[in-house]
Amino acid sequence: MVTSRDILNECRTIADELEELSDQRTVFKSLAEKCTTRYSFAPVHTSDDVNKTFAIHRLVMLDNMIDKHRKDLERKQKEGKELIKMIPDSRIRLIFFRRYIRNWNWKLIADVMLAEHDAVSIRHLLRLHAKGLSYLDNMDMVKEEKAQ
């Protein structure tokens, strides 16, 4: 059975992979632009065509992978949002939303909450996070018991 933790962790994993693919795309787009005479005033060599072909092929492949990851991320985030809505404490819901849907790190969450006049340390955030995970784990156990 897929647990709530698994779904939320998949949201973060897919978001991280998507960010990495986007970074790779930027690198290959830059390479393709450098190899293309339209973007470069350097003389054309036969190796430029090979590099350009490789870069363009890699760009197309990365675009396809990015599209697939975006769709996966949207689907997982929808599941994650449904889980997060079930958490009774609004502060914990907000922490989970920022952590798993927005893919923020703990420092950023703490800084934003401080700016919102809700001062919390990272340690306190982690305690609230553990409380939310505990609630979701209990929910998973209830679902398992109902399934049996």
Structural notes for this entry:
The chain has 148 residues and is mainly α. The protein has 2 domains: 1-85; 88-148. The chain is built from 5 helices and no strands. It has helices at 4-35, 46-85, 90-101, 106-115, 122-147. The chain is flat, with a radius of gyration of 22 Å. The model has no long low-confidence stretch (mean pLDDT 85).
Give short descriptive properties of this protein.
single chain; 148 residues; mainly alpha; 2 domains; 0% strand; flat
The radius of gyration computed from the alpha-carbon positions, rounded to a whole number of angstroms, is 22 Å
Helical percentage: over 70%
What is the residue-averaged pLDDT?
A: 85
| Broad shape | flat
Topology as H/E string?
Answer: HHHHH
Strand runs, count: 0
Q: Give the N-to-C terminal Cα separation.
A: 12 Å
Summarize this structure briefly.
The protein has five helices and no strands. The chain is mainly alpha-helical and 148 residues long.
Furnish the topology, listing elements before pairings.
Layout: H1 4-35, H2 46-85, H3 90-101, H4 106-115, H5 122-147
Helix pairs in contact: 1-2, 2-3, 3-5
